[in-house]
Amino acid sequence: MREAVNLTGMVLKSSPVGEYDRRLVLLTRERGKITAFARGVRRTGNALMAASRPFVFGNFRLYEGREAYSLASAEVKNYFTEIAGDVEAACYGSYFLEFADYYGRENVEGKEFLLLLYQSLRALLKPAIPNSLVQLVFELRAMAINGEYTSYPPKKVSDSAAYAWEFIISSPLETLYTFVLKEEVQRELRGCVEMNKGLFVDREFKSLGILREMQR
Predict the structure, then answer these.
(1) How far apart are CA 188 and CA 172, in angstroms?
(2) CATH numbers and ranges of domains, the chain
């Protein structure tokens, strides 16, 4: 058997396989997006049951196979249980996980995207920052990390919206969620981000559709 590898990451997806197993998709700092199987995790009392849920962030010990990994153990750093207990935050968070799954690449270092995802989920727990703004920041910076963005807003906007665009693209990830915008400026920025998504994102996201239905 190959030696185990230790990866830091977050569970993006978790789906049942067979009677007792789960198939996990993780975004990891060291190897980008990977698939791992948690064997027997659905048995009552299994020690890895809690670590095999979406949003779980921590250190994962895995054995590498030909096409997927096998989860051996996990040291959970954050379950993000507060998000799961808030319907709106859970919808936003689920959308962020979907977006990360869409952009995640195998065998490509995922350090920057993982940090963005972690910081964005934490931002959903800050009452001072509107969740709608967290979404804008996350989407734009995610596209910037992947190289799919314009250096300047794709349409003419106010100086405030243009500055926000530049700040989101270029600021350190740790300082992304340290500002709020006036409603009209956020509306301008939303239009620009949607235009950018129209240029570079070619799929619909289930959780985003649910979120939009909730907001109507």
Answers:
(1) 23
(2) 5-78 (2.40.50.140), 82-215 (1.20.1440)
